[in-house]
Design goal:
With about 350 residues, this protein is α/β, with parallel strands linked by helices. It has 2 domains: about 5-15 and about 120-360, Alpha/Beta hydrolase fold, catalytic domain (Rossmann fold, 3-Layer(aba) Sandwich); about 30-105, Sandwich (Immunoglobulin-like). Helix content is about 25%, strand content about 20%. It contains 7 helices and 15 strands. The protein has helices at about 160-165, 190-200, 220-235, 250-260, 280-300, 320-330, 345-355, and strands spanning about 35, 40-45, 55-60, 70, 75-80, 90-95, 100, 135-145, 150-155, 170-175, 205-210, 245-250, 270-275, 305-310, 335-340. The protein has an 8-stranded mixed β-sheet with strand order 8-9-11-10-12-13-14-15, sandwiched between helices. It has a 4-stranded antiparallel β-sheet with strand order 1-2-5-4, with no helix packed on it. A hairpin with a 4-residue loop joins β4 (about 70) and β5. α3 (about 220-235) crosses α4 and α5 (about 280-300) packs across α6.
Length: about 350
């Protein structure tokens, strides 16, 4: 199928700071925080331009190791090989006397604290309730697209293992700066789905939450060549478009668009959450319109639901999304649009999943 190359440079991250106009690259952008050197020594680095002191704490006995600060605000220290033998060592930076997790750690989003604010006495729809719970599995698979082993989370409904039934599949993608643990974690996907199923509001389904942390233009190939075949080989699934859905937020919304635009006959249900082409990118709009005209008839026939959702005008992707939809209108593509207050936030995206799931596979 035709590849959508114009998405190659897209990165709409799931946070306001990452959505600001592009500026000069920060020294932190490509910083390698921990590097094992060829001579057996290990170098630690952290970008802390306003700090007065930096140290290291953890399993490595780093007493006496001095961090030096470069003019660009990066602090670094190298532990000689005599200090660090072979093994696995926990560590934290100590910035001005405060223990600090490595901000460049790959899985930092999985341990980022979350505060839940609920007004009123009614239990929210995302709360863990006294109902039958499905299984949330971490699965590792070989990615031919990225030539590495990658991870995804997969929710199966309560009773799946004993049922023997084939089920439809929703592919649910996180935003930039997060990973495949974000929908099960801060997104509360498992609890939302458990509650909806217990209430009889959704059909049984498998929900696959891949790691979208990759160049956006590679995601469609990753999904179609690696992830979907793995799911269909290892799980009991229905494999036609009417039983396959895709949804994603922010950066994941761009990956969702890349996927259905590259493969317009593969998805019966689509939800693009808090996302849109960059309004000032003329090339993106020209290429996007060209591709939409090519796939319009196929998409209108295959997609039973093409839904765009936003967190209201305060959503940082709101204007981008609204401008993009003018192109969908121009190309005669049928879609729905809805918005709610809340901005570019997990509060909104939890609601998006809660509203989407009951509409799937009808």
């Amino acid at each position: 199928m035709k590849k959508i190359l114009f998405f190659a440079t897209l990165l709409l991250l799931a946070g306001a700071v990452n959505a600001q106009p592009r500026m000069g690259a920060s020294p932190n952008a490509n910083l390698k925080s921990v590097e094992v050197n060829a001579d057996g020594s290990v170098t630690f680095r952290i970008f802390a331009p306003n700090a007065k002191s930096v140290g290291l704490s953890g399993d490595i006995m780093a007493f006496g190791v001095k961090f030096d600060k470069a003019e660009n605000g990066v602090w670094s220290a190298t532990l000689p090989k005599q200090m660090v033998g072979e093994g696995a060592f926990r560590y934290t930076f100590v910035v001005d006397g405060v223990q600090t997790f490595d901000p460049k750690y790959q899985r930092l989003s999985e341990i980022r604290p979350v505060v839940e604010i609920v007004k009123g006495t009614e239990q929210p729809f995302w709360a863990k309730s006294d109902v039958a719970h499905g299984a949330m599995a971490q699965v590792y698979y070989k990615s031919s697209t990225m030539n590495t082993t990658r991870r995804m989370h997969i929710w199966t409904p309560a009773g799946y293992n004993a049922s023997g039934k084939k089920l439809p599949v929703l592919y649910l993608i996180h935003g930039g700066g997060d990973n495949d643990a974000s929908w099960p974690g801060v997104g509360k996907a498992g609890d939302i789905l458990d509650n909806l199923l217990a209430e009889g509001k959704i059909k049984e389904m498998i929900v696959v939450m891949p790691d979208g942390s990759m160049p956006t233009d590679k995601f469609a190939d990753e999904l179609v060549k690696d992830i979907i075949p793995y799911i269909q080989k290892n799980y009991r699934t229905k494999t036609d478009a009417a039983n396959r859905a895709i949804a994603g937020l922010s950066m994941g919304g761009l990956e969702t668009m890349e996927s259905f635009m590259a493969y317009p006959d593969m998805f019966g249900y689509i939800n693009v959450m808090s996302s849109g082409w960059f309004a000032n990118n003329r090339e993106m709009y020209a290429n996007g319109e060209k591709r939409l005209r090519e796939i319009a008839s196929t998409l209108n026939k295959t997609a039973k639901l093409l839904l765009f959702t936003q967190g209201g005008p305060e959503d940082i992707a709101y204007n981008n999304g609204k401008e993009m939809l003018k192109v969908f209108d121009k190309c005669g593509i049928k879609y729905e649009f809805s918005e709610m207050p809340g901005g570019h936030s997990w509060h909104v995206w939890r609601h998006d999943l809660h509203n989407l799931a009951p509409r799937l596979f009808k």
